[in-house]
Design brief:
This protein is about 5% helix and about 30% strand. By secondary structure, it is mainly β.
Length: about 140
């Protein structure tokens, strides 16, 4: 007799991530060190970079050349992707007196602490891409 294929069983849902970080030590080695980062209106600080968007960890496909979207550091976002409570939240990012608002759509595996990865459009609203990784950036969730 031929072996029969067995359909894979769905994995149990991952636990929801904690929506705040207590200190820099709790979120990796990035540059952020503010308390309660992740709660609406609470300050966060870290580095920004930019990336080519596409199908993100939140399950949406985004065009980063035309949309203000960003990815949150994996240590802050936790292991859950689709259905993550951070997905879809908006954040205000400020650098050198310029502010831009974007929507969280992805998880940044190369980011630590409170660092975030911005779409090309979102990054360009703050600085020239030639600057690459920029430290000393403040940001906060606004919803």
């Amino acid at each position: 007799p031929q072996p029969q294929a067995v359909a894979p069983q769905p994995a149990a849902p991952a636990p929801a991530p904690v929506a705040q970080t207590k200190s820099k030590e709790n979120v990796g080695t990035g540059s952020g060190s503010t308390v309660n980062c992740g709660q609406v209106g609470q300050p966060c600080s870290g580095e920004i970079t930019f990336y080519d968007t596409g199908l993100g960890a939140c399950g949406t496909t985004d065009d980063g050349r035309n949309e203000n979207v960003f990815a949150l550091a994996h240590g802050m976002m936790g292991t859950q992707s689709n259905g993550n409570p951070f997905c879809g939240r908006r954040a205000e990012v400020t650098l050198d007196g310029k502010t831009v608002v974007g929507k969280l759509v992805d998880k940044c595996m190369g980011c630590t602490g409170q660092d975030i990865d911005l779409s090309h459009k979102m990054f360009q609203a703050l600085a020239d891409e030639g600057r690459g990784r920029i430290s000393g950036v403040s940001w906060k969730f606004i919803d």
